[in-house]
Amino acid sequence: MLQHPQIDPVAIAIGPLKIHWYGLTYLVGFVAGWWLGRIRTRKPWSPINEEQMGDLLFYLALGVILGGRLGYVLFYNFDAFLADPLWLLRVWEGGMSFHGGLLGVMFAMWWYGRKVGSGFWRLADFVAPLVPVGLGAGRIGNFINGELWGKPTDVAWGMVFRTAPDSLARHPSQLYQFALEGVALFVILWWFSSRQRPRMAVSGLFLICYGVFRFVVEFVRQPDPQLGYLAFDWLTMGQVLSFPMIIAGAALMFIAYRRKAE
């Protein structure tokens, strides 16, 4: 049985100014995405050039932050927003929804794609392999905050989180998600997109892999207390939101390779 290291969520404090680890992990994700994106712009089929990567990152960052926060409010904790509307602005306390962030990023790509004339799907296929870096960084932020822990377990690597309501060893589900949504998803998509694929194929593979990884981890992740299980004593909101991603991803892959065959 392991003990959560209980890292101070504040990384740097200078007088009233406090910089949280959670925010720094997002910064790491954005910077790494920008750097990797510049590498991808050197591909002959890239929809944007190296100089445009900074502008694209700005649009994506807005989509992630606004969409992620609004998604969390709408999908997971609308009551907390009604009780304290200013809670919406305290992003450093945690509470971001990937599915909301995905919708925000999709809108940002559509908006920027129209601006530069690249088209939505070409831009989506370009961005998809960059996303896992930010996802992995965000899960490390969740782990530092001691939030989104898993269900009680007796496995050797079970961890006691002081933020949990008990002293039971739990699955460190944040680290599972870091390994799957961050590392594994990045390796799969970076390899798959290393050569030109049919339009929508990279986006489709992203949706399938993320949806499957998230759906599986939800079985050992503690459901959000304000929601609990939605049905069958095991179905969570994360699974409800991930299942359509798997279906949509499979449809995109089918369409992409059917068009190529024609």
UniProtKB/TrEMBL annotation:
<feature type="transmembrane region" description="Helical">
    <location>
        <begin position="120"/>
        <end position="140"/>
    </location>
</feature>
<feature type="transmembrane region" description="Helical">
    <location>
        <begin position="96"/>
        <end position="113"/>
    </location>
</feature>
<feature type="binding site">
    <location>
        <position position="139"/>
    </location>
    <ligand>
        <name>a 1,2-diacyl-sn-glycero-3-phospho-(1'-sn-glycerol)</name>
    </ligand>
</feature>
<dbReference type="GO" id="GO:0042158">
    <property type="term" value="P:lipoprotein biosynthetic process"/>
</dbReference>
<comment type="similarity">
    <text>Belongs to the Lgt family.</text>
</comment>
<keyword id="KW-0472">Membrane</keyword>
<dbReference type="Pfam" id="PF01790">
    <property type="entry name" value="LGT"/>
</dbReference>
<keyword id="KW-1133">Transmembrane helix</keyword>
<keyword id="KW-1003">Cell membrane</keyword>
<feature type="transmembrane region" description="Helical">
    <location>
        <begin position="19"/>
        <end position="36"/>
    </location>
</feature>
<feature type="transmembrane region" description="Helical">
    <location>
        <begin position="56"/>
        <end position="76"/>
    </location>
</feature>
<comment type="pathway">
    <text>Protein modification; lipoprotein biosynthesis (diacylglyceryl transfer).</text>
</comment>
<dbReference type="GO" id="GO:0005886">
    <property type="term" value="C:plasma membrane"/>
</dbReference>
<feature type="transmembrane region" description="Helical">
    <location>
        <begin position="237"/>
        <end position="257"/>
    </location>
</feature>
<dbReference type="InterPro" id="IPR001640">
    <property type="entry name" value="Lgt"/>
</dbReference>
<dbReference type="GO" id="GO:0008961">
    <property type="term" value="F:phosphatidylglycerol-prolipoprotein diacylglyceryl transferase activity"/>
</dbReference>
<comment type="function">
    <text>Catalyzes the transfer of the diacylglyceryl group from phosphatidylglycerol to the sulfhydryl group of the N-terminal cysteine of a prolipoprotein, the first step in the formation of mature lipoproteins.</text>
</comment>
<keyword id="KW-0808">Transferase</keyword>
<feature type="transmembrane region" description="Helical">
    <location>
        <begin position="200"/>
        <end position="217"/>
    </location>
</feature>
<keyword id="KW-0449">Lipoprotein</keyword>
<keyword id="KW-0812">Transmembrane</keyword>
<protein>
    <recommendedName>
        <fullName>Phosphatidylglycerol--prolipoprotein diacylglyceryl transferase</fullName>
        <ecNumber>2.5.1.145</ecNumber>
    </recommendedName>
</protein>
<feature type="transmembrane region" description="Helical">
    <location>
        <begin position="175"/>
        <end position="193"/>
    </location>
</feature>
